Amino acid sequence: METIPYWYFNRAQWTACRDSIPMTLSEKDITRLQGVNEDLSIKEVEEIYLPLAQLISYYINAYVQRQITVTNFLGRFGQKVPYIISIAGSVAVGKSTTARVLQALLSQWPKHQYVELVTTDGFLYSNAVLTERGLMQQKGFPLSYDISRLIQFVSDIKAGSYQVTAPIYSHIMYDVIPAWSKIIQQPNILILEGLNVLQNHTDNHCYAHQVFVSDFVDFAIYVDASDDLLQNWYISRFLKFCNTSFIHPNSFFHHYAKLSDTEATNIARNIWYTINYQNLKAHILPTRERAHLIITKTSNHAVASIKLRK
């Protein structure tokens, strides 16, 4: 008989796991946290994300107690070691919304007030470097990231460094902003969101180092959905961008703002199949089973099921 390493929960079973933890987010908060192409409701937060935040809080409490035990044994008191949560999944699946909701919920948990959120987009090589290396059409693939810099960042965070800086990425400029950085000072929790947070050397032969981002992660989440849904969500999001952020004169994709819906749909579908879908199948989806928890979505970004590693 095949061993199944996960507990499976349908939506009702998962919701039933929630204790009497009060909802601390308002309708206004939910609207602010939802993504460009998502209709996030308070019901979704209460039934899915609040139980998840509660579970993670239990994991963190156990982690903190273990740290206290170890530091007592070693006679080294007072060192703060952040708990790192990673969130992976395809483009357009809703990783950013999941990350923002968890940050908002965990920030209001006792003793978890300082929760930072960093996306790995900032660790992409600049467009100039990608162009020089012929990688602009593989942006988001493993080769397009400064993995050494990303690993140094999470290593410094995990080492308890007092102040660590993270590069910032502009989705309007479609590039890293060299003069900007985010300062992080010993958070209780760091949420790291990105395509590549579960990848290791088996995902790309170019990795020469033997340490990976996933080595520093305490709890890994993968947000999943069917190929058809992902494609539809990507195209829908692209169409919305054509009428919003692409209109900005500094947008890298400003030339798309004048497209008809039919033209924009065709371009978005082509980008999906030639870039994002290829990256998903080759580099992102193979990392799914490394996650501690897998969230599977259905239509309208509603969560249909949860798998939790035993």
From TrEMBL:
It is found in: Cytoplasm. One of its GO terms (biological process) is coenzyme A biosynthetic process. Keywords: ATP-binding, Coenzyme A biosynthesis, Cytoplasm, Kinase, Nucleotide-binding, Transferase. Pathway: Cofactor biosynthesis; coenzyme A biosynthesis; CoA from (R)-pantothenate: step 1/5. ATP binds at G89, S90, V91, A92, V93, G94, K95, S96. The keyword ATP-binding applies. One of its GO terms (molecular function) is ATP binding. NCBIfam families: panK_bact (TIGR00554). HAMAP family: Pantothen_kinase_1 (MF_00215). This is Pantothenate kinase. It comes from Candidatus Erwinia haradaeae. The gene is coaA.
